[in-house]
Design a protein that fits this description.
Layout lengths: L11 E5 L10 H15 L3 E7 L16 E2 L2 E6 L8 H15 L4 E5 L8 H5 L3 E6 L12 H17 L2 E4 L2 H11 L4 E2 L14 H6 L6 E5 L8 H8 L7 E5 L7 H10 L5 E5 L3 H10 L2 E4 L8 H8 L4 E4 L2 H7 L4 E3 L4 H13 L1 H18 L2 H13 L2
Parallel strand pairs: 1-2, 1-5, 2-4, 5-6, 6-7, 7-8, 9-10, 9-12, 10-11, 12-13, 13-14
Antiparallel strand pairs: 3-4
Helix pairs in contact: 1-14, 7-12
């Protein structure tokens, strides 16, 4: 599918379920931005319903409110900024507006927002839901209203959505086994970046090329950062451990991590990063590590490999499927195994160099945003 082609049957598309675009608050925001901007390039009209309120990592990261971004219409919906209610209220109003709007397709991202997928369906819209992960399993939603709401969102998606997209084969199997429902496996994509020299990170953080091990992502329990800190404290190396990312919803976990790390001066917390400093961190890491217990499809892992990083990841299927044999793997939740693997890569730079050589070409050839858009558009049109 070329940029010039396929404009005869232009579609009007609404997207909702993300926090806001443009933003790097989470993987969903990156996916919505990549899909919507590319669909506009193909001649389709796309409206994204952004959540009102502050950036998840703090008001200092708030961007300027926009009504348009790279040809995508942006509409801000009313949002109650209280933990647990922000997603519910913004998804409700976005679904309401999408229901009465002039759209051919309403594309809802994530299980919680899918709770309201029956609204646009009621008005004859074609509804597509992307399941970015089994969200009710996440630690912050494991009990109470949040868990019930998200589980019901999952069930509503099964019942009302015309098409369901999943990002991993494990989740595809889960929906087949649990609901007998067929879903479409369309993994995320990645762009090939320009490698950056270490300038800002040297100036601001004292980091140089290959002087640090990198974790980059939201600071939430299911990312396995506790294990990483505990393991790294027992690794004999001069390298630093850089934990880059902001907290999500609450600062309590960030405080817990800093308390755990306080006696080790090699561990650096950068807070939320974006732009040049993000590019430099990816470009100059010795290795990148993702010790997650739970993932949908980890975009940060795709990005890290696209920069040519040697990666060390937990053995959960969502990570193992991505890296195949092009990265190092440790046993999920196993601090002893993680410490051993970290020590091994610090002792054997030749292994790291070998992994780095093949990472970028492998991941960029395997995961293409243009293919993701093409496959998604097929689902939009399928009768």
């Amino acid at each position: 599918m070329t940029r010039k082609a396929k404009t005869a049957d232009k579609l009007k598309i609404a997207m909702l379920g993300h926090k806001r675009i443009p933003s790097r608050e989470g993987g969903i925001e990156i996916v919505v931005e990549e899909l919507s901007t590319r669909m506009v390039e193909f001649g389709h009209a796309v409206t994204c319903y952004n959540r009102k309120g502050h950036h998840v990592s703090g008001a200092e990261f708030d961007g300027e409110a926009k009504t348009e971004y790279k040809g995508v219409k942006l509409k801000t919906v009313p949002t109650i900024e209280i933990k647990g209610l922000a997603a519910v209220t913004s998804s409700f109003f976005a679904s309401l507006f999408a229901m009465v709007g002039p759209y051919d397709v309403v594309h809802i991202h994530a299980e919680g927002p899918a709770f309201f997928c029956w609204l646009p369906k009621l008005f004859g819209k074609r509804v597509v839901v992307t399941i970015h992960g089994i969200d009710w399993q996440r630690e912050k939603w494991k009990s109470g209203f949040g868990s019930k709401f998200i589980r019901q969102g999952e069930k509503n998606a099964m019942k009302y959505a015309d098409e369901i997209i999943v990002l991993s084969k494990g989740v595809k199997n889960y929906f087949k086994d649990t609901y007998g429902r067929e879903t479409r496996f369309i993994p995320n994509g990645v762009n090939r970046p320009e490698i950056q020299n270490a300038n800002l990170i040297t100036e601001k953080l004292g980091l140089t090329k290959d002087s640090y091990i990198l974790f980059l992502g939201r600071l939430v329990p299911e990312k396995g950062i506790r294990y990483l800190v505990e393991a790294f404290k027992n690794v004999e190396t001069d390298k630093k451990l850089v934990i880059a990312g902001g907290s999500s919803d609450t600062d309590s976990f960030m405080k817990e991590l800093k308390e755990l790390a306080k006696e080790d001066g090699r561990i650096i917390f950068t807070g939320f990063v974006q732009g040049q400093i993000l590019d430099e961190l990816y470009s100059n890491a010795y290795i990148y590590t993702l010790p997650s217990d739970l993932e949908g499809m980890p975009l940060s892992l795709l990005e890290a490999m696209s920069y040519g990083n040697c990666c060390l990841v937990s053995d959960i299927p969502e990570c193992a499927e991505v890296v195949e044999d092009k990265a190092l793997i440790f046993k999920k939740s196993d601090v002893v195994d993680l410490r051993g693997k970290l020590q091994d890569v610090c002792n054997h730079p030749e292994k790291v160099i070998e992994m780095k050589k093949q990472a970028a070409d492998f991941i960029c050839n395997k995961y293409s945003w243009d293919i993701v858009v093409e496959e998604t558009m097929k689902l939009y049109r399928r009768k």
